[in-house]
Amino acid sequence: MFAIFLVASIWYCYSLPQQEIGISIPVYKKSSSTDVDNYKNNQYSVEINIGNPPQSFNVLLDTAESWLWVVSDECLNCEPIQRSFVPGKSKTYVSTALSTIIDVLNITASGTIGMDSVFLSEALGVSQFFVLVNENFIDTETLFLADGVLGLGFSQLSGGYANFVQNLKLQGMTNSSMFSLYLSSEGDDDADAIPSNLMLGGCDLETYSYDDKFTYLNVTNSSGYWEVPLAAVHLEAGLAIESKSVIFDIGTSMILASILDHSTIKDAFRFHQGCEEDQNNGYIYCECPYENSTENYPPLSFYLGNGQEFQVSAFHYFHWNATTGLCSLLLGENAGESWVLGDVFLRAYYSVWNMDDGTIGLAQAKSNYVPDKSSSKSGVSLTSIIIIASGAAVLGIIIAALIYKFTRNRLNKKKMQCTIASISSEECHYNDQSSSSLSGSVNEFSSDSILNEPLVEIKPDYIVVPANLSQYAKH
């Protein structure tokens, strides 16, 4: 009966009318999840499609940028580049004839603003303003394997243009301008690692964290960044820091201390036993004779928001070199007055980013593995542990058999029952109406007026956009 009910339900859902945007897309889809490519723990990217017919691009995720941008086929000084967008090949591309300047990895590039359909998956797409870079672009060696950037920052960073996540809500694809990130620690070469993941419109706490809830921080997003107050930084003891805020940025691979505090944190490690500064490159190196010797070093603690503590273990903030027996500190310097908590921090936490109520939630990630201290410091190998455990198990069986034989004539047989209690993790909860919120979030958001506006077709065979979308573009 269940199978018949399931088949009937699926048939009914697919028989419902659906809104056409190039392909059939379910309206008010709660969430959509996609795997994220991890390139050597240095960059995290996703595949997107732009235009009709679709042109595919691999774009970096960047929470310190709001624009989606790719390279134009007419770009000057852009060689070599793997893939570029050809406007003439898309029958739905609309040019605004407007130009803008963007900062790409501290290098300035100029581009033209256009609009077309953008899909992260076959079932999740919107009409999106984006930048076609056409001059002074950086080469692929700097960008690694990427063709562009998918900005996940607030619209202040793009002159008021809504980013991809915001447009998913504005155009009815999700119930909220929310996304969640899980970053793998080992890279895609480790078959046992949980793949990095981006979920739009929701989160999956049970899959990516052992915690049963998020700890939420209010974002002071007047600048457009995911920025929260910084109360203190500890490395065994409190450090005399001057910075007052941190910025969360998936587009930065390391933790960057502010220009005000960089020397302070470096000195804290230099004076720690075994740590020295390389005078050639300025990096800190510490003695790590074996892989798990990072356990000899204390966690780096950040006290954020109202003083909530978030620890990053040495397992995360060090990179171990088996050849040299040294650990390099994954800490750099930010030219600004804020700390930047990049991938080194974000790999330790499963994060949910809510643009509606201006909060970011953190829960310890399943990838936040810290090796067992007792086995690492004693030098006992895993093989030895297995042999000892196996021997103990055999000995236990023999002893149990002897005890049973000795007492079986004096004991009555009894039936024993065992129950196992299951514990379910808290998940994100949604409101199917015009507003939604995370369970436990601080503030509720108000619905956007654009959701109540009529839809008009720019290209009748493909794109459907809100009639007053232009009011969200700052010309």
UniProtKB/TrEMBL annotation:
One GO MF term attached to the UniProt entry: aspartic-type endopeptidase activity
Read off the InterPro entries from this record.
Answer: Aspartic_peptidase_A1, Pepsin-like_dom, PEPTIDASE_A1, Peptidase_aspartic_dom_sf
Q: Where is the active site?
A: D62, D249
SUPFAM superfamilies named among the record's database cross-references: Acid proteases
Signal peptide extent:
1-15
| Positions of transmembrane segments | 382-406
Q: Which UniProt keywords apply?
A: Disulfide bond, Membrane, Signal, Transmembrane, Transmembrane helix
Q: Which cysteines are joined by disulfide bonds?
A: C286-C327
GO biological process terms, alphabetically, are: proteolysis
Q: Does the keyword Protein biosynthesis apply?
A: no
Q: At the top level of its lineage, which domain of life is listed?
A: Eukaryota
Q: Does the keyword Metal-binding apply?
A: no
Stretches assigned to the Peptidase A1 domain: 44-363
Family designation = Belongs to the peptidase A1 family.
Identification of the protein by name: Peptidase A1 domain-containing protein
Organism taxonomic ancestry: Eukaryota, Sar, Alveolata, Ciliophora, Postciliodesmatophora
